Amino acid sequence: MLGLADDALIYAQRLGEWLTRAPQIEEDLALGNIGLDLLGQARALLTRTGELEGAGRDEDDLAYLRDEREFRNVHLVEQPRGDFGQEMARLLWFASYQHELYAGLLTSADEVLSAVAAKALKEVAYHRDHAGHWVVRLGDGTPESHERMQAGLEAVLPYLAELFDDDATSVWAAEQGIGVLPSTLHDAVVAHVSAVVREATLTLPDESRWRSRGGREGIHSQPMGYLLAELQHIHRSHPGASW
Amino acid sequence: MATVLTALQVAELEQQIRDIPDPEIPVISIDDLGIVRDISVDADSGLVRVTITPTYSGCPAVQAITDHISWTVRQQGLEALVDTTLSPAWTTDWMSEKGRESLRRFGIAPPSGTRPAGPVPVGLSVRQVACPTCGSLETEELSRFGGTACKALRRCLSCREPFEEFKAI
């Protein structure tokens, strides 16, 4: 559950960086809105994680007072912003993954998790749709946009396999009927992304030779430290401050 | 606190809570928006439990609504306990006819129909949304995301007026 929460939290932070940087003001709003949906999901999941842990940690403690090695998000969401095409490639893959994941969690034995899934499923369907439209528009656009969209698909490639790794926690959660095995989501996610990529006249790149791993065990890439510094510094500089 | 409330006072308080305006779109009350799930007043202890459901997971208005409910209840010298529940998930189907009409008069197109439950096909959407100003169906989508999580931006091709649409979810 912490993995899902951290994926949403960290990606919300990255999407927030697009505000005032997107190609048009409507996209500032769109990416801000998507980030806000993810932040809402992260808050509910972090609160639930704190309850289950039983050590009295709330959503703020978990978001602001954990160190890098305690975060369980995949490497895909912590990578720095690329160009807009690359962001749409990342969003398409991530939203498609979340869509299948939340669909599987509707029947979770944990009632909070199934409620979050039911709520979030509608939201991520919209995110996936939004990214899909842009991938088609850019891929099937000018030679320049086509080339950069294709480059975007290639840039995110090494970080995709990790989404479908079955680590010890997810195997345990699946056995308990709480979670779903990430590897079972693979085919449906690839099928959806492939359909979009085909319509966009792009090609899905082959498996990359290098692939990321370790996010779910708390091993992160270099950009993660900088991201957390930005995310956490106000809370840590002013402990206990409130509005 | 031993406050004894009459049935009439309870009904009045419930109505006051239901009439609280949405902080982002003040023309619609939280009851017409369909986010008030339950109000129970314990007349003996003076505890008022209100259950609401957010429109979107990250909707920032939830905090403002919670505060407004607590404030309304405290004005009557009672204690409020506001719960947020995610399940079952909110849908635009719960919005009242009165709410839809106030949105339209305010210049926001009310949610029309529900999204298909199955996979959404790729490609440009061809959904028809009526312009809240002139009623024309000749409108186009400008952006799928508007100023708040629940709205999208559209433009009327007949009267050229841009407007917001409450997204159907």
List the helices and strands and how they pair.
The complex is a heterodimer of chains A (243) and B (169).
Chain A: H1 2-16, H2 25-53, H3 59-64, H4 75-78, H5 84-105, H6 111-139, H7 143-156, H8 168-175, H9 186-199, H10 223-237
Chain B: H1 7-18, H2 30-33, E1 36-42, E2 47-52, H3 61-75, E3 79-84, H4 97-106, E4 108-109, E5 139-143, E6 151-156, E7 162-166
Parallel strand pairs in B: 2-3, 4-7
Antiparallel strand pairs in B: 1-2, 5-6, 6-7
Protein name (chain B): Phenylacetate-CoA oxygenase subunit PaaJ
Domain MIP18 family-like (chain B): 13-74
Organism (chain B): Ornithinimicrobium cryptoxanthini
CA gyration radius of chain B, whole angstroms: 19 Å
**CATH level 4 superfamily of chain A:** Ferritin, core subunit, four-helix bundle
Let me know the average pLDDT of chain B.
Answer: 84
Q: Which class best fits the helix and strand makeup of chain A?
A: mainly alpha
Order of helices and strands of chain A: HHHHHHHHHH
What's the main sheet of chain A like?
none
Number of helices of chain B: 4
Shape of chain B: elongated
Question: How much beta of chain B, percentage-wise?
Answer: 15-25%
Domains counted in the coordinates of chain B: how many? 2
Distance between the termini of chain B: 42 Å
- What's the CATH topology name of chain A? Ferritin
Biggest interface between protein chains, with counts per chain?
Answer: A-B, 37 and 29 residues
Q: Work out the number of β strands of chain B.
A: 7
Task: Give Rg of chain A in angstroms.
Answer: 18 Å
From the N-terminal CA to the C-terminal CA of chain A, the straight-line distance is: 29 Å
User: Considering the protein shown, what is the CATH homologous superfamily of the largest domain in chain B?
Assistant: Fe-S cluster assembly (FSCA)
So what's the CATH class of the largest domain in chain B? Alpha Beta
